[in-house]
User: Which sequence fits this backbone?
């Protein structure tokens, strides 16, 4: 009984390097997840956009409640792939796809996706890519939300720094809540449900949940 | 990245050729000779400087100059206008938020709770709406005819991004057409199973979930197929579709810089330039 | 084009996936000589795919599982020999990497560092070897299933492999596709002499090309290893029970004569159907579906069979004309199924989709079966009674708490049919019910349909399978493609 020495395992330091190195399946699944989530974003745009503008118009900053779905890419990417950069890659691919299907915000969608992805990535990095529990997922959602808030403060088509302090405070609050719940908690539940279908068998997220058969 | 699915055929030229720009479709456009990486830089170049100032003039000049460049892009004027139309409808909506919640300045017309409609906020609202259009236009012009494979080749060969990532993402993004089909079939299936009458939100969540299952499964199988063809191994890769930079790229970038310079200059000259963080 | 056929030697080899208690394959020993053509058989779950993936060196590293024994290709580990071993998968869509035919075939060569000036010749060579005669810039999305499989084979061949591995290449193809890939493989093997290992359950298609049959045992080791005639003679019955289509083991089901009360349950008037609301795939259809009998819709790819089925089931609006149901099926808004509400459809016309997973809504088998009855507002006792009866009838009782996505192909298919039957509709429409099924799954579905017909349910099935048509008896609707050039590549 001997472990296989694969051609891909270039680093001679074993477990840690292997844990953090991207395999081909990690790259491709990250890309495909990003595409699927991008499609979900686009559909959510039609549902959630009505919600967002209604809320945002009536009440200052409360439109942030719907934003959480757009932060899902980073959280799900990080929880499934569990390698450095996964959250960023999935969120950015999703942003690009949703931009190209027919979203209208142009390049700022992608730039914002980068900010959001980095926010989630930061949280996973703080935990050294070792912890992927529900609280970490919620925090990653908050990180992504913070990234979005910061981005929209300075960039975007209508930078929020021009709006009143109350608006920005409320917006931050709703974004954080939305990020924690609609991205963090929902993302965590989503990954668990994915694992239960057996689709994640090549990932740690899938293996730790399937009971030994 | 072009939208190559059946329903987009009406908007586009027919299937393009194997990476050779001069034989693509029925017409070649000047922009086909511009490397995709340059096009990305151009899109950024045509957007980011506009972030610096919120005013009506810079946005309008940028839009006008870019519209003048339509012949270079190989798109029909009608196509561009059609895509712009959607943008034109959505743009005022972004303005509304600014109208109501911008920090008040000048004469205040109307107040309600946190909302203050003032002179300053209405100016900002109009400028912002125009800016939405100005920011969306480069994407429409530059990327409607970009072939994803060509883009990936450029990113790996010219921008020197890691080829494993670029090609992995390219292969993964091909699945979009399959996902659109899946989404449509799943909607029909929900109607057949008796849950199609109510609960749009609930259907959205269950369908999204199944889509992700398909995504992970397909991705896993595709990864296996790619690895079986030697992808991801330590062997240095060759490229059967070389991607290079040429003089045209420099011209395109210079042109983009000129458009931005003119837009900002016009705003400064007419006195409407307003630095966003002032 | 020859690069020397490969030799595969296995010695007590086994593999256990990480996270599982039992190994997927254990104690497998054989030697495959260069140039042999091997058919790999076994019950589902016996580990055939694992063995094939192991031969390709693609099972992953120590994180993903534990190996025992040795499995070597040409004397060394298959992981180190990328490009020497070609793999074609079951799902035609999964094997396509790039969006143009020429680019896709060139992909393997690029990865292996073949100089750019040599690649076009190799691509042409590979495409000729499989007989795929399409221009290099044809979009891969426009290819049929059979063409996609041939493309995958060409992609593997461009690497000039010594070992070709094919994992159920015909499972997801229609009869034309099956013929295409079979012809291609024969051509390829004749031209290159590469060693061939194929997993299949449609043995009749391959038996005369194969020199050897290896049967993997479900409990470890090999069940049989010898020439096709020998193995089928001695193990024919076991294999047939395990789901393999063994030659000379016909299916023991009655062939139904056309039955029916003679009434019509669905009729169409000048019907034009379309997927995208613009281009019709069929026009001027005047059809009747007899009550209490089977109706089979047949035709080549692109003829619009699935579109017609979805329109009859009230899920797609007709482009022109109308579908009218019998008076006893009248809904609130009349006799047109497209006008009925989702809940009215449940008890009138049920639809079983080609891919069962498109229909799944819940996390357990039991919940899936309850979706329909719950939507109809039945009370708890009635729901339990109906669901328990269905679980028994379809052999899913042991799986009542399992996640629907973890079931095998045959079980998923049975579950999707069961969910439709839960609401006891008068008409059941099925799109390719035996698609991708092995012998056991096939028998399960066809006997279920025969049962339903005997109970008086009307069955409408879209199918390519001649045997299904024979066994269901009944009325046949043949569709021919409308020569508009807009027909879909996959119906």
Assistant:
């Amino acid at each position: 009984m001997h472990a296989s020495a694969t051609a891909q395992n270039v680093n001679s330091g074993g477990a840690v390097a292997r844990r953090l190195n991207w395999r081909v399946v990690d790259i491709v699944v990250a890309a495909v997840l990003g595409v699927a989530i991008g499609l979900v974003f686009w559909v959510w745009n039609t549902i959630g956009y009505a919600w967002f503008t209604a809320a945002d118009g009536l009440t200052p900053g409360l439109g942030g409640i719907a934003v959480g779905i757009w932060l899902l890419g980073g959280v799900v990417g990080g929880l499934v792939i569990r390698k450095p950069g996964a959250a960023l890659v999935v969120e950015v691919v999703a942003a690009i796809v949703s931009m190209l299907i027919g979203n209208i915000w142009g390049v700022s969608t992608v730039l914002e996706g980068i900010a959001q992805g980095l926010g989630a990535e930061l949280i996973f990095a703080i935990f050294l890519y070792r912890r992927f529990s529900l609280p970490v997922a919620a925090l990653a959602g908050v990180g992504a939300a913070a990234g979005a808030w910061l981005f929209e403060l300075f960039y975007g088509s209508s930078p929020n720094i021009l709006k009143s302090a109350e608006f920005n405070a409320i917006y931050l609050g709703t974004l954080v809540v939305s990020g924690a719940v609609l991205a963090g908690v929902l993302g965590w539940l989503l990954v668990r449900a994915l694992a239960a279908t057996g689709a994640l068998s090549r990932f740690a997220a899938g293996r730790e949940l399937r009971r030994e058969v | 990245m072009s939208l190559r699915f059946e329903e987009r055929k009406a908007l586009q030229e027919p299937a393009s050729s194997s990476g050779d720009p001069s034989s693509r479709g029925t017409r070649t456009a000047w922009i086909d000779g511009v490397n995709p990486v340059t096009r990305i830089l151009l899109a950024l170049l045509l957007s980011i400087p506009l972030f610096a100032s919120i005013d009506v003039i810079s946005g309008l000049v940028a839009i006008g100059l870019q519209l003048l460049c339509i012949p270079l892009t190989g798109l029909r004027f009608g196509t561009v206008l059609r895509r712009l139309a959607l943008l034109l409808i959505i743009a005022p909506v972004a303005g509304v938020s600014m109208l109501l919640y911008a920090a008040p300045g000048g004469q205040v017309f109307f107040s309600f709770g946190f909302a203050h409609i003032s002179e300053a906020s209405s100016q900002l609202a109009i400028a912002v709406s125009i800016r939405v259009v100005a920011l969306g236009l480069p994407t429409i012009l530059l990327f409607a005819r970009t072939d994803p494979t060509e883009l990936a080749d450029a990113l790996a060969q010219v921008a020197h991004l890691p080829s494993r990532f670029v090609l992995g993402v390219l292969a993964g993004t091909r699945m979009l057409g399959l996902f659109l089909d899946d989404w449509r079939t799943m909607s029909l299936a929900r109607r057949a199973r008796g849950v199609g009458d109510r609960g749009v939100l609930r259907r959205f969540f269950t369908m999204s979930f199944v889509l992700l299952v398909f995504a992970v499964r397909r991705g896993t199988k595709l990864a296996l197929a790619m690895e079986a063809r030697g992808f991801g191994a330590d062997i240095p890769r060759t490229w059967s579709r070389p991607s290079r930079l040429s003089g045209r790229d420099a011209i395109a970038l210079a042109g983009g810089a000129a458009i931005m310079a003119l837009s900002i200059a016009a705003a400064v000259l007419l006195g409407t330039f307003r630095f966003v963080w002032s | 084009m020859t690069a020397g056929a490969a030799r595969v030697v296995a010695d007590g080899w086994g593999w256990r996936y990480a996270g599982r208690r039992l190994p997927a394959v254990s104690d497998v020993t054989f030697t495959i000589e260069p140039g042999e053509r091997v058919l790999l058989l076994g019950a589902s779950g016996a580990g055939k795919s694992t063995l094939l993936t192991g031969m390709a060196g693609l099972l992953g590293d120590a994180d993903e599982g534990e190996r025992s024994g040795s499995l070597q290709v040409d004397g060394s580990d298959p992981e180190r020999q990328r490009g020497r071993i070609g793999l074609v998968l079951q799902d035609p869509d999964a094997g396509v990497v790039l969006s143009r035919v020429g680019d896709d075939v060139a992909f393997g060569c690029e990865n292996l560092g073949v100089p750019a000036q040599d690649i076009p010749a190799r691509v042409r060579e590979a495409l000729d070897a499989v007989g795929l005669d399409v221009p290099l810039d044809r979009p891969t999305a426009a290819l049929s299933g059979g063409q996609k499989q041939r493309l995958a084979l060409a992609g593997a061949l461009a690497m000039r492999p010594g070992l070709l591995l094919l994992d159920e290449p015909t499972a997801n193809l229609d009869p034309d596709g099956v013929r295409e890939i079979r012809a291609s493989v024969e051509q390829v093997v004749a031209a290159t002499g590469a060693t061939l290992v194929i997993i299949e359950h449609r043995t009749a298609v391959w038996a005369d090309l194969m020199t050897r049959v290896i049967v993997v045992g479900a409990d470890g080791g090999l069940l049989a290893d010898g020439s096709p005639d020998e193995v089928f003679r001695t193990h024919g019955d076991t294999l047939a029970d395990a789901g393999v289509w063994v030659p000379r083991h016909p299916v023991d089901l009655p062939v139904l004569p056309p039955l029916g009360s003679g009434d019509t349950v669905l009729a169409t008037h000048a019907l034009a159907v379309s997927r995208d609301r613009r281009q019709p795939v069929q026009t001027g259809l005047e059809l009747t579906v007899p009550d209490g009998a089977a109706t089979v819709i047949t035709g080549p790819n692109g003829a619009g069979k699935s579109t017609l089925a979805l329109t009859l089931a009230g899920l797609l609006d007709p482009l022109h004309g109308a579908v009218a149901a019998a008076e006893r099926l009248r809904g609130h808004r009349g006799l047109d199924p497209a006008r009925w509400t989702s809940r009215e459809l449940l008890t009138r016309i049920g639809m079983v989709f080609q891919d069962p997973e498109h229909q799944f809504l819940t996390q357990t088998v039991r919940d899936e079966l309850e979706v329909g009855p719950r939507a109809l507002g039945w009370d708890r006792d009635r729901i339990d009674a109906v669901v328990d009866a269905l679980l028994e009838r379809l052999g899913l009782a042991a799986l009542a708490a399992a996640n629907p996505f973890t079931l095998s192909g045959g079980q998923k298919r049975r579950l999707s049919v069961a969910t439709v039957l839960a609401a006891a509709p008068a008409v059941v429409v099925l799109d390719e019910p035996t698609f991708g099924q092995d012998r056991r799954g096939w028998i399960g579905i066809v006997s279920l349909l025969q049962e339903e017909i005997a109970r008086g349910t009307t069955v409408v099935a879209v199918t390519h399978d001649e045997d299904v048509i024979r066994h269901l008896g009944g009325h046949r609707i043949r569709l021919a493609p409308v020569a508009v050039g807009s027909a879909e590549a996959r119906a």
Remarks:
- Residues 484-491 of chain C have pLDDT under 50 and may be disordered.
- Residues 8-242 of chain C form a domain with the Rossmann fold fold (CATH 3.40.50.300).
